[in-house]
Amino acid sequence: MSVIPQQPVPRQSAPQQLPTTYLPQIDQEVAAGPQPRRQTSGVRIGDALSLVGAVLAALALAAVLSSQIAPIRGFLAFFLVTYVLFLAIYAVLVRLDESASVVVDRIVAVLVQSGAFVLVLALTSVLSYTVIRGHRAVAHSNLFTHDMTTTGPLDPLTSGGVGHAIVGTLIQISIALAITIPLGITAALFLTEVPGRFSRFVRTIVEAMTALPSIVAGLFILSSFILVLGFDKSGLAAGLAITVMMLPIMIRAADVVFRLVPSTLKEASLGLGAGQFRTVLNVVLPSARSGLTTAIILATARGIGETSPVLLTAGFTASMNTDPFKGPMVSLPLAVFEFVKSPEPTMVARGFGTAVVLMLLVLILFVAARVLGAQDVAKRARRKQRRTAVRDRVTATPSPTSPRSSDA
Amino acid sequence: MTDDEAIEEVTDQPRKIKLVRDVPDRLFRAVATAGGVTVLLIMLLVGTFLALKAAPALHEAGFSFFTTQAWNPDGKNFGVAAVLVGTILIALVAVAVAVPLSVATALYITEYAPRRMKKILVGIIDLMAAIPSVVYGLWGFFFLQSRLAPVSVWIAQHFGWIPIFKVKGVDSSHPVSSLTLFTSSTLIAGLVVGMMITPVITSIMREVFSQVPMGEREGALGLGATKAGVIRTVVLPFGKGGMIGGTMLGLGRALGETIAVYMIISPVFTIQPHILQSGAISVSSLIALQFAEANSFGLSALMAAGLTLFLMTLVINFAASSVVARSRSGASS
Fold first, then answer.
1. B208: CATH
2. Does residue A321 contact residue A327 with C-beta atoms inside 8 Å?
3. pLDDT digits (tens, 9 = 90+) for A97-144
4. What's the CATH number where A301 sits?
5. Number of Cβ pairs < 8 A linking chain A and chain B
């Protein structure tokens, strides 16, 4: 763009010559001609080519290296070598026509994206490997309904199942939740609503207990409830062990949720003359509801999958036991653990099938947490409004009286 | 007129504010306090009970509890030297795997990913945190182990001169024939535990990175920084506290992991610093291994080991939360 400096053009016939602003005039020719639009986003062909080239070169070099110079065994090792070579070659290619800071930018981008990719890949492989090894066992419906009483390790997958473990898991987690939910929410309310030195102390202790390894929780129940108080290894003991493990997690999550309730809402309620109890009941709990639900469900998923406290406290049985107070009661993770110890391939397949059942349970809980957690106050209010509107319409249709007639 | 006189007599003093709570409020506070006290009692009960039960073993062993490698409570010769070192090694491998992956994933989610991808990834990470540890154990034992062993062989062949990568008993002319020397190792257990703690660390880091003020990001971009420049000069310094805190929380988790480690390792009771070599041990897998055969003294010894582990994770957790709280980004978490 060329600018022609100009003398100020006197407008009309000005009587006095005051200095005015210079108006730079854009060169007519340049302004009229088509200006090439500068591309600020998207991918340039050169970038794509250097990326593809680097991948190909790295693959070829790794193949030569692994076959001729240093033998590499296994896909994983080959992949790692290829990746390192790719990074080096890509850096050199980019350096050919860009500055050093661009090279750093590209390499960082590659590293970050491949890190995320590896993580997703690992998760997919965890899930899909379990499903692939377990699908034969899950295909037989007796896995869900039968127990292992009459099934030996050599029996085919069409006999026996983990119905007893499913029932056991549900009973144990119910016991844990029956204690954890009321106690956890009350304690969290205490931490947020009754502030003071004592509640700070309780919060510190609760935070400390989140560090308790789950196996130590199991060890505690084993040596107190079972050995000192003389109870059997039972579903109740396992439920209590899960409770000891879940309680701090629950309190901490609920505490965070309660602290997120806007203080303006609470102050508005207090300003309208409501007492603390009314405020908690009508403001704090409803606005924390979805957060609390998520916290409970995620803690449940964690408690269901926990093996080590159950291993120490529940004992192991092959038969159905619905009485949590008497006799050993197996749970899903424990069943997986015991099945895959066996050298028999059918038993291992059964273990993988049980793991699939366990993951399905966790997945259902997780999806439920997502759906319920996504509901916020506004959405709920809108739904309620819609519901009342529908109800009004339903109740209004039989009676012919219009709202206007009631005025008269 | 009497009213006016009464008003005039009142001197200008601040009114005393007296808080009167009605019955439901007092009841509510009483119930909430009772809940808090109950929880406190449970927690203190667990702590003191563990300490009391561990006392006989600790008394018997004395200071040698921390220096003895063997675990033979019946012969009164036991200690946590080997077990603790094994636990720490597994946890360190786990953190070494998990931290780079977490930083990359958290940065990808906050800096690079398109909006829809962001949501999906956050969901995946949360789901990964909910997968039971026994499933990770299955994956590690049946899937990862056989695929990782050749990599271990390769590392041992080329980097065996670094002490931690040394493997004893390898026939150097036929390294492949001794593949079993490379299974059930600290490295494999650490990798699996690393996969388990990655989602925990990632979600903390993502939280912190997403709090980086937009103005600072845009300032760096306006000064001509590349994306990598923004990450290096703005995002990482801002999130430093959260990164350290998240890593330490992950470390605490890794120290306490039981089942996945127990499924993979083959236990040894000597200090085993060679992470590629078969044989490893951790406190929690020691407990899972020994509790069934233990008599009351053996149980007391296991309690002592568990207590040691608990105190270790406790210190790490408190350090983590104080680091997070002191950092610029940690006020809300």
1. 1.10.3720.10
2. yes
3. 888 888 999 999 999 999 999 999 988 899 999 999 888 888 888 888
4. 1.10.3720.10
5. 280
